[in-house]
Amino acid sequence: MAKTVFRTTAKKPPSPVVQFAPGETIFSEGDAGADMFILQSGRVEIFKMIGGEERRLAILEKGDFFGEMAVLEEMPRNATARALGHVSAIAVSSGTFDQMVRENPEIVVRMMRKLSARLRQVEDDLDRMALRAAALGAASRADEPEPRPTAKKTPGSHRLITENGDTVFHLSVGSETTIGRCDPVTGIDPDIDLSPADTHRSTSRAHAKIYHRGRKFFLREEIGTSNGTFLNETRLETGVPVELVDGDHVRFGLVKLLFRVGE
Predict the structure, then answer these.
(1) What is the DSSP letter of 146?
(2) Could you give the CA distance from residue 172 to residue 161 in angstroms, rounded to a whole number?
(3) I need a labelling partner for 118 at 20 to 30 A (CA). Which of 59, 110, 141, 197 fits?
(4) What φ, ψ does residue 223 adopt, rounded to 5°?
């Protein structure tokens, strides 16, 4: 189906808004590209062909952007994007992108975070591969079964518990615990992934952070979070930490949890 382009009257020529039908391919892996896209409505599936089969990398939602490598590096597409249902997106060319950056530096900040998260994920993957290779080598020399690799995250005794008590999210043993939803495309991999408790996908990928200093705990909402963060039903101000004590009720979007301090 052909793309329909809508333009609005404005002082400066706007980026075209393009529409895609359900199942329509937005771009394919290996294609040359000159535009990136900012998703206005609908959902987009990102996948790669591996061993002759489709492997889904992520599902993108309103506000996500994709295809930026074509604008930043003039590289061929490294994955395929396909519309899930009706999709509306803004197509941004390299020239338009330069203008947007000059007028709105926050765009650069968002993209830097995304690329930084991807790099961090690659580093984690390389570390796991190195550990696995070392374990295989040791097992081969000793003629013993391969030891299980050490987990990337070690849970602590402090925790967040769902209202019905069915799900427990343990804080990490480090000084900080990131909270949000995992996203393979951007590489965002929070210490606590709320996806199992967030059936309405109301939490952001990098939603909030809990950290402790000495015996005190603090909760802070991250910049760019949607649907809010609440402590005992009081809305937090973005970027401003508040003290968190045992028994406090916290809410990330629609996900209600109880904070408990371990012994």
Answers:
(1) P
(2) 14
(3) 197
(4) -65, 140
Instruction: Give the count of beta carbons closer than 10 Å to the beta carbon of residue 87.
Output: 23
Kindly state the DSSP code that residue 198 receives in the 8-state scheme: -
Helix (H) or strand (E) holding 81: strand 80-93
Q: Residue 250 and residue 226: Cα distance in Å, rounded?
A: 15
For 19-57, what is each residue's pLDDT tens digit?
A: 999 999 999 988 887 888 989 999 999 888 887 888 888
Q: Which helix (H) or strand (E) holds 141?
A: helix 106-142
Confidence of residue 98 (pLDDT cuts 50, 70, 90): confident
Q: Is 244 in contact with 210 (CB distance < 8 Å)?
A: yes
Site of tokens 């061993």: 51
- Could you tell me the sign of the dihedral formed by the alpha carbons of 191, 197, 199, 200, in that order? negative
Q: What is the 3-state secondary structure (H, E, C) of 204-225?
A: CCEEEEEEEECCEEEEEECCCC
Write out the H or E segment, with its range, that includes residue 121.
helix 106-142
